[in-house]
Amino acid sequence: MSKEKTTVSVIKADIGSLAGHHIVHPDTLAIASRILAEGKSKGIITDYYVTNVGDDLQLIMTHRRGVDNNAVHELAWNAFKE
Q1: DSSP class of residue 18?
Q2: Count of domains observed in the chain
Q3: Which terminal residue of the chain has fewer beta carbons within 10 Å of its beta carbon, N or C?
Q4: What is the pLDDT of residues 57-74, one digit of tens each?
Q5: Predicted structure pTM score
Q6: Domain of 48: which CATH number?
Q7: Strands 7-14 and 56-63: what pairing?
């Protein structure tokens, strides 16, 4: 049995909405998914799920890099900036 640990990182940001605080635009969700898919193909993360509650965008990512990994946090930051 492998002793490699899996880390689950959930990073969220209140990114705002077009009118009020009710939803993340579908294009924003798609862009975040694309960026995380690129991170998965590069081996930064092993899997991901993009979701929202109101205008908060959540990035749920699994990886094997441990807690507070710079590459994982940079990937999330790039998704939020885009």
Answers
A1: S
A2: 1
A3: N
A4: 999 999 999 999 999 999
A5: 0.91
A6: 3.30.70
A7: antiparallel
Structure tokens that stand for 1 in this block? 């049995």
What is the token pair recorded at 82? 């885009």
Alpha-carbon span 21 to 33, nearest angstrom: 21
Q: Enter the tokens of residue 4.
A: 């490699």
Which residues does 55 contact at the CB level (< 8 Å), separation at least 6? Answer: 14, 15, 16, 17, 20, 21, 22, 23, 24
Q: Cβ distance 15 to 57 under 8 Å?
A: yes
Q: How far apart are CA 64 and CA 72, in angstroms?
A: 10
Q: For strand 47-53 and strand 7-14, is the pairing parallel, antiparallel, or unpaired?
A: unpaired
Q: What is the pLDDT of residues 27-58, one digit of tens each?
A: 999 999 999 999 999 999 999 999 999 999 99
